[in-house]
Design brief:
The structure holds two protein chains of two kinds.
Chain A: E1 15-20, H1 24-27, E2 37-41, H2 51-64, E3 71-75, H3 84-94, E4 98-101, H4 107-123, E5 132-137, H5 140-144, H6 146-150, E6 156-161, H7 163-169, H8 182-195, E7 198-201, H9 210-223, E8 227-230, H10 236-243, H11 247-265, E9 271-273, E10 276-278, H12 283-295
Parallel strand pairs in A: 1-2, 1-8, 2-3, 3-4, 4-5, 5-6, 6-7, 7-8
Antiparallel strand pairs in A: 9-10
Helix pairs in contact in A: 2-3, 3-4, 9-10, 11-12
Chain B: E1 7-9, E2 17-22, E3 28-34, H1 37-54, E4 60-66, H2 71-85
Parallel strand pairs in B: 3-4
Antiparallel strand pairs in B: 1-2, 2-4
Helix pairs in contact in B: 1-2
Classes of the chains: A alpha/beta, B alpha+beta.
C-alpha cells in the first residue's frame, strides 16, 4: 500500500485539476501532468448509479498509485445526498490528503463533515487531524457566509467558488470581463484572507478559447487568488506561467529579505532597498514571492 | 460473501474491465477475455481469484471482459460486482479489511 506523506495545510496550489474517480484511464497516471493538486471527483462527474463503483475505484487508486508530490483531494457528494458519509469513509481509509465539500453554505456544513472525518480517522486508525478540508461555495448563501465557512475548522486549507452553479443562482452567465462573479470572487477572497486560508477560482470550461482563459487567469492573479481549478491538462502550463513571479520581483524580494534580516540584527527598523522603502510589513509578501519562485524553479537560495 | 444475484461493474472503455457475477453451485467458474490475453491472461486470472478469495466467495460464475485494466482496477470492479450482487455496495464497505 502506498503511504502518502502527511498533508501540508499550506502548500503551493496553483493548479487543481478535476478528474472523474470512476474512470481508470484518467486517474491511473494523473501525476504526470505536473499540476499541484488533483481533484478526484465522486460528485457531478459520476452518474448516480455508479457512485458505489467510483468509491471502489477511488480506494484502490489511492492505495496503489504513487502520485508522488502531487496533492490528492477528493470532491465528495453534497450533504443533501445519501452518498457523502460513505464518501468520507473511503477518502479517509484510502489516505486522501483532503476533502472538498461541495455546495457548502454554512460553518455547520464544515463541522458536520469534520465530525464524520474524525469518526472515520478513528475507525480506520488514521492519525487524527490528518485529513484536510476545503469548501466549494456554489450559492449566494455560501458567498454570504464565506467568512464563517473559512474559519470553521483548523483543517480548512482553502475555499473555492464554483461558477456554473453560482451563475445559475444569480440568473447570469459567463461574461468575458468577469463582472458576473466580480463581487462573489471579491467577497470570497476577503473572507479567505481574513481567515488565513487559501482561495481558488472556478473552472474555465471553453477549452478552445485559450485567449479568454488567459484573460481570466490574469484577472485571478491580479485579484489575489492562490490558484485555479482546471478541467484539462492543457490548461496547466499557462496558469503556472502567469502565477510565477517575474525575475525582477524575485531579485527585489531576495534583496528585501536579506537586507531586512541584516538590518533587524543591527537594530534598524526601516530602510531602503533599490530606492524603495522597506519595513517589516513588506517581508511576508517578499518571503511568499521567494517560496513561489523556488517552486517554479526560479530561486535556489536558502532564504526560504 | 455469497453471490446472491446477477450483478455487473465496470465498462468496456480502455484501461477498464467489465466484470459480471452470477450465482452458481460448482465452485468458481471464471471466464476471461482480454485485449492483452497473451501477455497478462495469467496475471488477470490470479488477481480475480485472489480478490474473490479475500471476499470469501467460493461459488459462482464470473465473467471478465478486460480492456487493459491495471490490477487495482480489476480488483475494484470484481469487488463492486460482488457487493452489488448482495445489495451491499452503497455503504458500510470494509475499506482496508476485505477490501485492500
Amino acid at each position: 500500500m502506498i503511504k502518502r506523506p502527511t498533508p501540508e495545510r499550506f502548500r503551493l496550489r496553483r493548479t487543481m485539476m478535476f478528474m472523474n474517480a470512476q474512470k481508470p484511464g484518467l486517474i491511473k497516471d494523473a501525476y504526470i501532468y505536473g499540476c499541484d493538486s488533483i481533484m478526484l471527483d465522486l460528485e457531478d462527474a459520476v452518474a448516480e448509479n455508479q457512485k458505489d463503483a467510483a468509491r471502489f475505484s477511488l480506494y484502490h487508486a489511492l492505495t496503489t498509485i504513487d502520485y508522488g508530490s502531487t496533492e490528492v483531494i477528493v470532491r465528495i457528494n453534497g450533504l443533501d445526498t445519501p452518498h457523502w458519509q460513505e464518501d468520507i469513509r473511503v477518502c479517509v481509509a484510502g489516505g486522501a490528503d483532503g476533502i472538498r465539500i461541495a455546495k457548502c453554505e454554512s460553518a455547520q456544513d464544515v463541522k458536520t463533515v469534520e465530525a464524520a472525518v474524525l469518526a472515520a480517522e478513528k475507525e480506520f486508525g488514521v492519525e487524527e487531524g490528518r485529513t484536510l478540508l476545503m469548501a466549494a461555495l456554489e450559492s449566494p448563501k455560501g458567498i454570504l457566509n464565506a467568512y464563517e465557512i473559512c474559519a470553521a475548522s483548523d483543517r480548512m486549507f482553502g475555499v473555492a467558488i464554483s461558477g456554473g452553479d453560482f451563475r445559475k443562482c444569480m440568473q447570469t452567465k459567463f461574461q468575458r470581463d468577469g463582472v458576473d462573479m466580480l463581487v462573489a470572487r471579491g467577497q470570497m477572497l476577503i473572507a479567505a484572507r481574513a481567515a488565513g486560508i487559501q482561495c481558488f477560482d472556478t473552472v474555465f470550461t471553453d477549452l478552445d478559447d485559450m485567449e479568454g482563459f488567459e484573460a481570466e487567469v490574469r484577472q485571478n492573479k491580479a485579484m489575489g487568488f492562490d490558484g485555479k481549478s482546471l478541467i484539462n491538462p492543457k490548461q496547466i502550463r499557462l496558469v503556472h506561467e502567469i502565477f510565477a513571479p517575474t525575475e525582477k520581483e524575485v531579485l527585489q524580494a531576495e534583496a528585501m529579505v536579506r537586507a531586512f534580516r541584516e538590518a533587524a540584527a543591527a537594530g534598524i527598523g526601516v530602510f531602503t532597498v533599490n530606492g524603495k522603502m522597506v519595513d517589516v510589513a513588506f517581508i511576508p509578501g517578499a518571503e511568499r514571492t521567494l517560496k513561489l519562485a523556488k517552486a517554479c524553479g526560479m530561486y535556489e537560495g536558502d532564504l526560504v | 460473501m455469497q453471490i446472491e444475484k446477477n450483478a455487473v461493474a465496470g465498462t468496456l472503455e480502455s484501461s477498464d474491465a467489465m466484470v459480471t457475477v452470477e450465482p452458481g453451485a460448482n465452485g468458481i467458474e471464471l471466464e476471461i477475455s482480454s485485449s492483452v490475453m497473451n501477455q497478462y491472461g495469467r496475471q488477470i486470472r490470479a488477481t480475480v481469484l485472489e480478490t474473490l478469495s479475500r471476499l470469501g466467495v467460493s461459488e459462482g460464475k464470473v465473467t471478465v471482459v478486460d480492456k487493459g485494466a491495471l490490477d487495482c482496477t480489476l480488483k475494484a470492479r470484481v469487488e463492486c460486482a460482488v457487493f452489488r450482487s448482495c445489495d451491499k455496495s452503497a455503504a458500510g464497505i470494509p475499506w482496508g479489511g476485505a477490501i485492500k
